Amino acid sequence: MSSAGHDSPATDRLWSVEEHLEDVLTTIRPLEPIELQLLDAQGCVLVEDVMVPLSLPPFDNSSMDGYAVRVADVAGASEEFPAVLDVLGDVAAGAADPLQVGPGQAARIMTGAPLPPGAETVVPVEWTDGGLGEGPVRGMPARSLAPQGATGQVRVYRPAPARAHVRDKGSDVRAGALALKAGTVLGPPQIALLAAIGRGRVTGRPRPRVVVLSTGSELVQPGEQLEGGQIYDSNSFALTAAARDAGAIAYRVGAVADDADTLRSTIEDQLVRADLMVTSGGVSVGAYDVVKEALSHVGDEDEPGGGVEFRKLAMQPGKPQGFGTVGPDHIPLLALPGNPVSSYVSFELFVRPAIRTLMGLQDVHRPTTRARLAADEPLTSPKGRRQFLRGTYADGEVRPVGGSGSHLIAALAQADALIVVPEDTESVASGAEVEVILLG
Amino acid sequence: MSSAGHDSPATDRLWSVEEHLEDVLTTIRPLEPIELQLLDAQGCVLVEDVMVPLSLPPFDNSSMDGYAVRVADVAGASEEFPAVLDVLGDVAAGAADPLQVGPGQAARIMTGAPLPPGAETVVPVEWTDGGLGEGPVRGMPARSLAPQGATGQVRVYRPAPARAHVRDKGSDVRAGALALKAGTVLGPPQIALLAAIGRGRVTGRPRPRVVVLSTGSELVQPGEQLEGGQIYDSNSFALTAAARDAGAIAYRVGAVADDADTLRSTIEDQLVRADLMVTSGGVSVGAYDVVKEALSHVGDEDEPGGGVEFRKLAMQPGKPQGFGTVGPDHIPLLALPGNPVSSYVSFELFVRPAIRTLMGLQDVHRPTTRARLAADEPLTSPKGRRQFLRGTYADGEVRPVGGSGSHLIAALAQADALIVVPEDTESVASGAEVEVILLG
C-alpha cells in the first residue's frame, strides 16, 4: 500500500536487498503460456513435454549420392572387375513412389532420398563410373545439364555391405519419445528439432511486455535544446535497452512531468500493453516526488489487492525503491530511483530477475564471481548499506571505475561489473577478495 | 566461380577450416555506417568518437531533498539552538530561474534542482523541521497535499560545510571529453551515457539483414502433412533463429524446390533485402544439387567479380560448402550443406563470424575452452578431417551426446558445446583434454 505524504512507520525501516528481492520474486508469477509460432518462441520457455509424433528419419534413406543396389550384385566388385548393373532411373529426395530394384539393377539415388524397395545398400557415386563408362567419377553431373547416368548401365568398382550409407528410419528419434521436456529454453537447435518433427507451433511463455517511463519536470528528450535547470532523459533509454537485453519486449514511454494526475493517467493508459511497468524517479523524500502520490490509486480504487509500497533499502546506490501492483489486473510495477546509476543498478538487481521470472526462466540472476580487488586506494562504504560500485573485470581481477556518486554515468559506461561491498564492511583494501556481479 | 557439372580440378582439393574461414572473413566487409536512432543502435558498433558537448551535470545541483542555504547561517546550529531561516520558496528539478538566496534565507530544494544563486550548501530535510515547527522530520510532505514548508521559517539542526550535498557542474564528465570511442559496442550503459549528453542519434553499423532459404524438393513446412519420401524443413528455422541470435535481422524465405530456375529467381528476388544470403542443401555431388548450377549466374551475368565457389572442406560434418557473392551488388552468400547437423555446425563456424564481421564487431567467434573428455568409449574420427562432435559442457568436463551422424538432430538439441577432434587425431580416449566450442 502506498504512503503518500509522511512515510508511515511500517515502511520506514530499512529493508535488506534480499527482503526486497524476495518480495518482488514471490509476487511476480510467470506469464500464462500461449501458443507461439515457432520462430516467435525463440528464447522462450516451453511449458509442454513435446513428444515425437513420427520417427526421424521417417523412412530409410541414403546418406550419399550414389546407386541403390542389392548386396549380392556388387559382392566382389573391383576396379579390374566391376559389377555392371542396369540403371532404372533416379530416386531424388522427395520422390513419392520410388523404383523397385531387382537383381542386376540399380537406381541412381540422391542424399536423403528413400531407399527404394528391393535395394539393400548404397554405393557412393565416387565408387562407380557414374554411368558414363569412363572410369571412376568424382560426382554426378547436374541432371539438367547432363541427363546421362540415370539410365543405361553403371559400373561399380567396390562391394558394399548391407545397409551401407543408409540412415535407418528412427535412428535419430523414434515416434513416442520425448523430444523436449517442459522448461526447456528454445534456442536454435531446439527450434531445429521442433521443426524437424513437424511442430510449427508450441506452447510456451511469451516475452513479457515492459513499459518504461521516467519522471521529472527537468527531463528533456535527447536531441532537443536544454534550457536552464534541465537535463536529458537517459533513464528511459537505458531501462528500455536493459529490458530488451533481459528478454522483454520493451516500450519506452519517455519522460513524464512531476504531476501526479499526468503520471497517473499515463500509467492507466499504458496498463493495456504492460506485463510489467518500470518507472524511474520520484520515489525519494522530496515535495515533488509524485510517483508515491500518483501510485496510491491507479485504476479502480475499489479493486482490492493492488497498491505500491515505497521503502528504503540498505543499499547504495538505490536506497529508495517502490514495488507493488497497479490497475484492476494487478500489473506489477517497480518504481526505481531517478539517479542514472541508482536506476541502472536497481534494474540489474530487481527488474532483470523480475522480467526473467515472468518468462518462466530458472536462471534469473546475473552470474557472480569472486575477484581480487585492484584499486589505487581502499574502497570505503557506509556502514549498514550494501554498496554496488562500478568496475571492470578481467582474469580474476576487478578494478573500480569512477567513484560512488550515483550521478556518475560516464564511469558506468566503462564498467562491465558491479563490485559488492557487504553491509558490515566499511573499507576494502586493494588485493582483498570481493564479490563481483558480471554485467557482460 | 561456380563449377556446374563436373568439379573443376581447382576446387577439388580439400580446404582446411581455416582456409575457408579466411576466404569468408577477408571477402566480407563491415556494413557501411548509417545514422541510427539511439534505441535502434542497441548491440551495434559505434563508428564515431563521441565527444561530450556539455558538461555533466550541466549545472551545480543538489544531491538531496532539503534546503539551500549560506554556510555562515547554519554554522553552530544544533537541536538545542537551531538556525532559523526564512524560506523563500521551492526550487524544483527543472526550475528555470531559481530564487536568489540572501543572508538569513533558505530555499527548499529538490534532488537534481539547480543550486540557487547565493546559496553555498544544502542541508538535507532530515536535518531540519521541514518548516513545520514540530522538530526533525523524515521527509517532505507532497507539495500538492501539504503546501507548508515552502514558505514561512525552517529550523536547521546541524551545520553544513560549503558545497555539502552539491554535485558540481562537470563532476561526471566535462564538455570536450571523449564520451565513447569509435568501436564501442552499445549496450544499455553506453546508451544511457549517449542519452545523458543529448545524443538522440549516433553513427553506427546497422544490424545485417540475412536472408535464409533451404533447398530440397523433399521439404515440407512444419504443421503440414508429410507424404512419402518427404521430411520437414528444419534448416530454415534453425538458421533464421541462429542468425538472430548472432545479432542479425533475419528473413526466413523457407524451402525452395530443387529447380535451378526457381532457386535463381528466388535469390534474385531476395537480393534487395539481403546483406548476406544463407542457403542450405544442394551443394554436394548429386544430380539434383541445383544450388551449384543456379548460383553460377545470379543477377547480371556481365557484372564481373561475382560468383559462388563450391569446395570440399577437411571437416566432418560439413564437408561440402559454397561461398562467394551474388548479384550486381556482390551480396555475400554462404551455401551450407543440407543435413541439419552439418548446416548448424557450418553456421556456427562460418556464418556467425560472417554476421559479426558485417556488424563490425571485433569478437566474431564463439568462445572456446579446454575440457576433459568424459566418454563411455573412445571418440573415433576420420583421418584428415576435423571433426565437430556435439557435447554437453560443465565444470571443465565435456560429455558427447549422440553419435557423429549428421542427421542426428535430437542429440543436437541436447548439446551446448562442440567437441573438436583435430585432423591428425583418429581416436580420443576418455579423460583426454580436448578443445571445446561453447555454444551457450
TrEMBL record, chains A, B:
Cofactor or coenzyme needed: Mg(2+)
Highest taxon listed in the record's lineage: Bacteria
Gene3D superfamilies: MoaB/Mog-like domain, MoeA, C-terminal, domain IV, Molybdopterin biosynthesis moea protein, domain 2, Molybdopterin biosynthesis moea protein, domain 3
EC class (word): transferase
Enzyme Commission number: 2.10.1.1
Listed pathway(s): Cofactor biosynthesis; molybdopterin biosynthesis
Catalysed transformations (reactions): adenylyl-molybdopterin + molybdate = Mo-molybdopterin + AMP + H(+)
The keyword Iron-sulfur is assigned to this record: no
Keywords in alphabetical order: Magnesium, Metal-binding, Molybdenum, Molybdenum cofactor biosynthesis, Transferase
GO biological process entries: Mo-molybdopterin cofactor biosynthetic process
One of the record's GO molecular function terms: molybdopterin molybdotransferase activity
Keyword Magnesium set for record: yes
Domain MoaB/Mog: residue ranges: 211-357
Record GO cellular component, one term: cytosol
InterPro entries: MoaB/Mog-like_dom_sf (IPR036425), MoaB/Mog_dom (IPR001453), MoeA-like (IPR038987), MoeA_C_domain_IV (IPR005111), MoeA_C_domain_IV_sf (IPR036688), MoeA_linker/N (IPR005110), MoeA_linker/N_sf (IPR036135)
Family matches, as Pfam families: MoCF_biosynth, MoeA_C, MoeA_N
Family to which this protein belongs: Belongs to the MoeA family.
Protein name: Molybdopterin molybdenumtransferase
Source organism: Streptomyces mexicanus
